[in-house]
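Example 4.3 (complexes with small molecules)
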Amino acid sequence: MKLLVTGGAGYIGSVTVEALLSEGHEVTVYDNLENGYREAVVQDAGIVVGDLSDADLLRKSLGGMDAVIHFAAHSKVPESVTMPAKYFRNNLVNSIVLLNAMREEEVPKIVFSSTAAVYGVPSACPIMEDSPTEPINPYGESKLFFEGILEDYHRAYGIGFVSVRYFNAAGATDRLGEDHRPETHLIPIILKAALSGSAEVKIYGTDYNTPDGTCVRDYIHVSDLAAAHILALEPGCQGIFNLGNGTGYSVRQVIDAAREITGMDIKTVESSRRPGDPPILVASSERISRALGWKPRYPELGTIIETAWNWMRAHPEGYGK
Ligand code: UDP
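Answer. The structure with uridine-5'-diphosphate bound is encoded below.
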């Protein structure tokens, strides 16, 4: 297929582009390189450096495309709490610009990066797709609003959509890994501390109603996420799907696993809760398994951390920008 991948120079986007190319798809990345890296775009992909707010450039880039995979977004929960305008402008308003450009260019399908943050504080785990959606931060809200718009555009204009609600993406391929600046995600922060030998990892909140008092998350390998996006392109595939491994690990458990894998004594310091964090997020991915035959290749937390560690040791400066 001929695909436009927005945010294809970012973490999950770049890994998906690599996987798409290896399966013979023709890919153009559309990225403003604000948070992405040219070095993360695999050579065989085309690249358009542009912003999602640029409707003309989007229309030009969309001509003849079979589908869009839409990763481009701001994705830091704490930042969304202090800067909601930034999140609604980019994740919502600019995503609508993209959708309207797709409509004008008659691009029939979009696969959208959504998030577990749409569920807020879930009443039961594992979370199913029809669990109540009550986000507790603007990041989750921005993604949920856009899912509603996708439903409306599908109904009114026939644009097909798949929304993939990710749990916690982590891990790396041989070539591509996670390099956010500043880094806010737990696994790369822990591994950076291991690499430095001295930095302390802050544990945000030790008084949650969880087995060890720290937040529990469902970590999923970035390559397993990429594989799901490719399956979502199948003709007729439509709707909302969770994507996680179905197993939760606390912050302390992740730190212990990283100590074992790196062989380093990672120092920690207990800190207050981070605004916007739900205590537990664990996915049921039964729907995507049943509908598309998706199955994680790297479900083990140890493998996920190990691949991230290998990439970080090979790229201590990240992409070096
Ligand atoms: N976390 C932490 N210390 C850090 C970064 C994250 O204790 O330096 C916690 C965070 O509060 C959350 C979990 O680790 O409970 C996962 O956070 P992350 O930012 O990786 O992903 P999120 O679940 O927010 O998407």
